[in-house]
Amino acid sequence: MPSFTSYKYEPLRIHEDADRETDGEQYEMNDGSSSKLYPIDGIHDGLVCPTEEELATLRHVGDVIPWNAYLIAIVELAERFSYYGAGVVFTNFIQYPLPVGSHTGAGLLNGQSGALGRGQHASTGITTSYQFWCSVTPFAGAYIADVHLGRFNTICVAVVIALLGHIILIVAAVPGIIEHPDTALAIFLAALFVMGLGTGLFKANISPLVAEQYKRTKPFVVTNPTGEQVIVDPTLTVSRIYMYFYLMINLGSLLGQVLMTYSEKASFWLAYTLPTVVFLLCPIILVMGRKRYVRSPPTSSVLATFVCLLRFASRGCWSINPLRTWRNLTAPDFWDAAKPSRILPAARPSWMTFHDKWVDEVRWGLRACTVFAWFPIYWLTVNQLNNNLTSQAATLTTNGVPNDLLSNLDPLVLVLCIPLCDFFLYPALQKWRIRFTPLKRITIGFLLGKTILSSPRFYTNPSVFMQVPPLWFGLQFCSIVFTKRVHAVMLRRHARIVPGTPRVSPLNVWIQAPAYILIALSEIFASITGFEYAFSKAPENMRSLVTALFMGTGAVSAILAEGFLWLAADPLLVWNYAVMGTLAGCGGCAFWLAVRHLDLREEEEVLRVADDREELDEAGVSESR
């Protein structure tokens, strides 16, 4: 993982006569200037607090990231290597039968690898159900971490469970068992159940843990080696942590998928064993760095406190008129009445042991959940990469390329483009004073990911498709007519088809590339920002829970996908891609219309912080240089 900043700064040197016990007041520096420093808290000691003018005019940059985060990112890389490395061959393992004479499922150079022979309906259904299970179990991981074990200990338990699942998966593919499809299927499903449980416990806690390694929460002013004064912004730092954390996810995914798509050509048990070996890095690194990590201890269940808070705040808001009730519940001052500072100490309930800041954090956490409600539509399109497109690639001309190799374009584009966004795109937007807020990034990601796919029925291939831009819905029908004409010409150029032979389209498998590239670009803006939004908007003792809620959108998407399974077969795939694309494109537009007021509120929140600073000035706390 590269360094998150190109400069280093020295600790501030305060004049020898300054009294450190009165931190937070004006200090005379050795260079003759004076600045307000943050109070001593062990995290922001000696850092210069920026003025309102500096906040508005100076360039904002990210801070240096501690090595603890690097170690956790490597753990994530190893876990994602094993998860995606094994998962990339699931479709072929389930859908296609064992090759004649094979005891390992190997398709060798030009053959199609397979084992269970259950068909495309079963492969799509099982892989979608597995995605659902992996998206539901994070709720258990969040509860265990927040209430009982803490995030780090829960991750350790998750690693042990997932390792057991990987071992069971290998058993399902070994010679002697793979030749018996029913037995192999039962063991395979058991492996998915155990692996999904471990994955869920892991996923809910690893992303909050990596961001928690950076403890600074307040911006401060430094001078870089060129002499330019800049503001080190913790918000940007967290954003960059998640960008490179996501890069490590996709680097692990890329390495695992590339190696395993070729490993399955030799045997499925090899394609399942190699990810298990790499997964062993997880417990080793966790044990080696256990004393270096910043850990959040478990707390009592915040769900009960949240329910009490919500009930208390909503008193007097209910009405027979649903419209009036909605207005009362969404009023700007809805949460103010539940703040402890507004209630006399004698009248406070026993459960009200929190402070005003936690109420504000709960409010922002709920707003984040309203944003997450749109993500199932997004994942509905993205998940086409893992099932239907992989099945479709097997019917195209591959010239020896494994049909599931193209799915690696997604992580490859992410690995290449994340640093480009970090070093070029985002700094350029800041230089041009363009506020590329999280909600704007998610909207762009939604629109980029809405690639409309249409797959008209072809006589030699039941699922060849064309890609058209996400909002041009009318062109999808034109593309169907166009591709039919192109395909008719290609058929005339090819030799007649021999009855009984597999029907393979003359179209090259790389025609799928645009879909993978566009969806990868969309993940940079939508998926990465979703993790960042979940962490930054959640109360500190609810971060695992809110992260689990974000991941739970994948479960909702999996349920929706199950409803479209009847379209996941020739000749209805044309309608599958058309429906997915239309829903996703409309969802992207509706998303921005629904959340743009939240984007404005976030800007108002920044201005409110500035107003609070003005109140401090009026109280006599000067912040002038």
From TrEMBL:
<dbReference type="GO" id="GO:0005886">
    <property type="term" value="C:plasma membrane"/>
</dbReference>
<dbReference type="InterPro" id="IPR036259">
    <property type="entry name" value="MFS_trans_sf"/>
</dbReference>
<keyword id="KW-0812">Transmembrane</keyword>
<protein>
    <submittedName>
        <fullName>Putative peptide transporter ptr2</fullName>
    </submittedName>
</protein>
<feature type="transmembrane region" description="Helical">
    <location>
        <begin position="412"/>
        <end position="429"/>
    </location>
</feature>
<feature type="transmembrane region" description="Helical">
    <location>
        <begin position="574"/>
        <end position="595"/>
    </location>
</feature>
<feature type="transmembrane region" description="Helical">
    <location>
        <begin position="184"/>
        <end position="206"/>
    </location>
</feature>
<feature type="transmembrane region" description="Helical">
    <location>
        <begin position="241"/>
        <end position="260"/>
    </location>
</feature>
<keyword id="KW-0472">Membrane</keyword>
<keyword id="KW-0813">Transport</keyword>
<dbReference type="Pfam" id="PF00854">
    <property type="entry name" value="PTR2"/>
</dbReference>
<feature type="transmembrane region" description="Helical">
    <location>
        <begin position="155"/>
        <end position="178"/>
    </location>
</feature>
<comment type="similarity">
    <text>Belongs to the major facilitator superfamily. Proton-dependent oligopeptide transporter (POT/PTR) (TC 2.A.17) family.</text>
</comment>
<feature type="transmembrane region" description="Helical">
    <location>
        <begin position="266"/>
        <end position="288"/>
    </location>
</feature>
<feature type="transmembrane region" description="Helical">
    <location>
        <begin position="364"/>
        <end position="381"/>
    </location>
</feature>
<feature type="transmembrane region" description="Helical">
    <location>
        <begin position="515"/>
        <end position="535"/>
    </location>
</feature>
<feature type="transmembrane region" description="Helical">
    <location>
        <begin position="547"/>
        <end position="568"/>
    </location>
</feature>
<dbReference type="InterPro" id="IPR018456">
    <property type="entry name" value="PTR2_symporter_CS"/>
</dbReference>
<dbReference type="InterPro" id="IPR000109">
    <property type="entry name" value="POT_fam"/>
</dbReference>
<feature type="transmembrane region" description="Helical">
    <location>
        <begin position="441"/>
        <end position="459"/>
    </location>
</feature>
<keyword id="KW-1133">Transmembrane helix</keyword>
<dbReference type="GO" id="GO:0071916">
    <property type="term" value="F:dipeptide transmembrane transporter activity"/>
</dbReference>
